[in-house]
TrEMBL record:
Signal peptide: none annotated. GO terms for molecular function: calcium ion binding; heme binding; oxygen binding. It comes from Cladocopium goreaui. This is EF-hand domain-containing protein. Keywords: Membrane, Transmembrane, Transmembrane helix. It comes from the Eukaryota. PROSITE patterns: EF_HAND_2. Residues 331-366 form the EF-hand domain. The chain crosses the membrane at residues 68-88, 108-129, 186-206, 218-237, 264-283. InterPro entries: EF-hand-dom_pair, EF_hand_dom, Globin-like_sf, Globin/Proto, Mb-like_M.
């Protein structure tokens, strides 16, 4: 979209033929004029990218951002080196008043570098031209700055060419110049002119190109640096070759001055123009480089979205209308609530047009072609991310993988080893003389797990982690060690990254807990067979511990001394008494959860836990707090009821209960709408295996027909690797839990519909891997 401010009398001259003007009106920027919103014709590019894709490296150039930037950087570097005479030889010639003047004499290398600079500029231009929108370029050329840049570039080239011509004429008069030399000089003048036009043209095309904002910032920063260096060095280097201080020239309407002064003035003016462009693009998120208008004028699509939502009162949006409209497009309840709260800036229960446009402006600027549905879905997702720290699974993986790539494996392993051995329960497992080997094994375990997850074949990762857990049974690894390992992992990441943001901590916790710890524990402990005993043991253990008068006091002390835990527990509570009351309530709550699980009321227990998730996250509780609580509670059990009650079996039951029935449920609470519905379906069918009839009963809840159910079942079999085996209820629950994490803002119905329509996830990942690299 392009914005132009012009007088109404000249509007017909400015708007290209066939351009759609979607809105006109008086600007609200304190200036008279007309605001136009122009929607360019789709794919109205000057140079089609299909031409480049036929080249040997054309497709690669289209997918990457840095080749065009690197080519332009090299072109400017070569041109600057050429200007400062890095590849020339020097000769003294007489000036206007017969004063000796140094002059560059061309060499084969200097000519080669000039041609290389021109070729590099050409490559940058071709890359950028495939993104240049013709309508946007037209509107850009209607402003002053682009033409001023062209004029300054031409003025600088003319000044330098005149100076060199004058000095070469002096050489010729003295009999030092041959006809072949003149031909060479004219070719050099032509190449220099082409380079200057390429440089100025590139600066204008970047403004009109459909390229990322950071690329524009880099472009303008490099060009600004080039202009500043060229003009500053020329100004302060008094004996710079190729300039005769006594020569004078008048170019166009400029005052008579020396060519050197003309050159400095031209490049200085261009540096000022580029400074203004740099301020616009670097400091102001959504501003253009040269166009005088802001994206806030380009709000016609947002106005249309507002009108669709404001059905009860055309002047504002109320929550009931907002909720109904977003439910129809498949947005989940939690995301609708977060989105409306972010729109309701004044907390009045109503959203005005001004607030609606202000809140959605940034998303609209990043996705100007997004539909009404996509725009609102993205906004609600970002609003939910802002308040909860949760993003989609792809974003979480992106955070985890990018941060892990910044780690040095050996240093990370040693740091994690030192964190682990600070815990007395783990120190005895490791030998000090094998520290380096053990630390590398820790880092290698994390590396392998993350490499498996990068393949996005979650069922394969689950099978591999279960096998890994089975092998670790023989190593003496207890379920309680998993908690300490997670705390050490987060602590080590925090140390190596100079702190973890809320989003990064939640991303690591969700990915590690759900995809690594859960299946690892399933292999380490026979969860299906031992769950009833786990629930009963934990309930008895908590009830016995709560009876002891020193329980809460001991727990508070241990919480503040967990190795690798948080030292800011006091920030969560008003005072020590409030902390003790809250922890006593938490223990009572866990007793109720264990009782529900022991009675077989699994859905009730999980809904109870999810109900307090938002309360805890809003209070500033993060996953590491819960891990520290789990570990501190283990120490408290040992101190309060003694080792004869808190046996190894009881300790394992507590670890399994906290990891699988508390921590994972809390972490996945934002994705629970789909999981709740699937678990309710699992309770209703009352069987462990799933056939087409049972699966169709699930898809019936989303109003899908039998053919869709059959496709969904085939995909589930393909992803689970169970073509000839029976699918279990747990396979279905696990699959749709992961699917809801992929699309956290979607409703249950939309998640099921999308799953049944799409091919297996692994096929999608392999076929789309090249696109993801873009």
């Amino acid at each position: 979209m392009v914005i132009g401010m012009v007088s109404s009398r000249k509007m017909a001259m400015v708007v290209p033929a066939g351009t759609e003007i979607t809105r006109q009106g008086v600007s609200d920027a304190g200036k008279r004029g007309c605001v136009m919103v122009v929607k360019p014709v789709a794919r109205a590019y000057i140079l089609s990218g299909h031409m480049m894709s036929s080249w040997f490296v054309g497709d690669w150039l289209l997918r990457k951002k840095w080749p065009a930037i690197m080519a332009m950087f090299l072109a400017l570097a070569f041109h600057a080196a050429d200007y400062f005479g890095a590849f020339y030889t020097l000769r003294e010639v007489p000036g206007v008043n017969n004063t000796p003047v140094a002059m560059y004499q061309p060499t084969l290398l200097s000519s080669t570098m000039s041609v290389a600079s021109m070729v590099a500029f050409t490559l940058s231009l071709v890359c950028v031209l495939t993104r240049v929108h013709s309508q946007l370029l037209w509107m850009t050329l209607r402003t002053f700055d682009p033409w001023a840049i062209i004029a300054c570039s031409a003025r600088g080239w003319s000044a330098r060419t005149f100076s060199r011509y004058w000095l070469q004429q002096s050489q010729s008069d003295a009999g030092w110049h041959s006809d072949a030399g003149w031909v060479h000089n004219y070719i050099a003048y032509g190449i220099d002119l082409v380079i200057i036009l390429q440089f100025s043209g590139l600066l204008i095309l970047v403004e009109a190109a459909d390229i990322p904002k950071d690329v524009k910032r880099i472009f303008v920063a490099i060009c600004l640096l080039y202009c500043v260096v060229i003009s500053a060095v020329t100004l302060f280097w008094s004996e710079m070759p190729d300039w005769d201080t006594d020569a004078e020239v008048q170019i166009l309407f400029f005052a008579t001055m020396a060519p050197k002064s003309q050159f400095v003035s031209a490049y200085g003016t261009m540096a000022v123009l580029l400074t203004k462009a740099a301020v616009s693009t670097i400091l102001q998120k959504n501003a253009f480089m040269y166009l005088r208008c802001h994206y806030e004028y380009c709000m016609d699509q947002l106005d249309t979205s507002f009108a669709k939502l404001a059905t009860t009162d055309p002047s504002c949006i109320v929550y009931a209308d907002f909720r109904l409209a977003l439910q129809e497009i498949g947005i989940s309840e939690s995301h609708i609530f977060a989105g409306f709260n972010r729109l309701d800036v004044d907390h009045t229960g109503k959203v005005s047009l001004h607030n609606f446009r202000t809140c959605l402006m940034d998303i609209f600027a990043e996705h100007p072609d997004a539909s009404h549905t996509v725009l609102l879905a993205k906004f609600c997702q970002e609003a939910f991310n802002h308040v909860s720290g949760y993003s989609s699974l792809d974003s979480m993986f992106g955070t985890v993988f990018s941060q892990w790539r910044r780690m040095k494996i050996e240093d990370f392993g040693e740091c994690m080893y030192r964190s682990l051995v600070q815990d007395a329960s783990l120190e005895k497992l490791f030998r000090r003389e094998r520290m380096r080997t053990q630390s590398l094994l820790f880092a290698a375990f994390i590396q392998v797990a993350l490499c498996w997850l990068e393949e996005r074949d979650f069922r394969k990762v689950e099978r591999d982690m279960i096998s890994l857990g089975l092998r670790h049974r023989s190593y003496g690894i207890q379920p309680s060690y998993v908690c300490v390992f997670q705390i050490a992992l987060l602590q080590t990441l925090c140390q190596n990254l100079n702190g973890l943001s809320l989003q990064a901590e939640i991303s690591w916790s969700v990915v590690w807990s759900h995809f690594v710890v859960a299946p690892f524990l399933q292999g380490l402990v026979d969860l299906d067979g031992e769950r009833p005993a786990v629930y009963r043991a934990v309930k008895d253990l908590l009830v016995e511990t709560k009876k002891q008068p020193t329980c809460i006091q001991s727990l508070v002390h241990n919480l503040h001394h967990v190795v690798g835990g948080f030292w800011d527990w006091n920030k969560l509570f008003r005072d020590p008494e409030h902390e003790r009351q809250h922890l006593a309530m938490l223990l009572g709550f866990l007793v109720a959860v264990a009782d529900d699980l022991d009675a077989g009321e699994i859905l009730k227990a999980r809904q109870r836990i999810r109900g307090i998730a938002n309360i805890h996250w809003d209070r500033g509780v993060v996953p590491r707090h819960m891990l520290a609580f789990q570990h501190a509670m283990s120490v408290t059990f040992r101190e309060v009821v003694g080792p004869h009650v808190f046996t190894h079996a009881a300790e394992s039951s507590w670890a399994v209960f906290m990891q699988t029935e508390v921590l994972e449920i809390l972490l996945l609470a934002p994705f629970a709408e789909t999981q709740d519905r699937v678990e309710a379906w699992a309770c209703e069918i009352g069987c462990r295996s799933v056939d087409l009839k049972a699966f169709a009963s699930l898809t019936d809840l989303a109003c899908l027909d039998e053919s869709m159910a059959e496709k969904g079942l085939q995909r589930l079999q393909a992803e689970s690797g169970k073509y000839h085996e029976e699918l279990t209820v747990n396979d279905v629950i696990k699959t749709f839990c992961d699917e809801s994490m992929q699309h956290p803002s979607w409703t249950f119905e939309k998640v099921l519909e999308n799953y049944c329509k799409m091919p297996p996830a692994r096929d999608l990942y392999l076929s789309g891997s090249s696109e993801l690299l873009e």
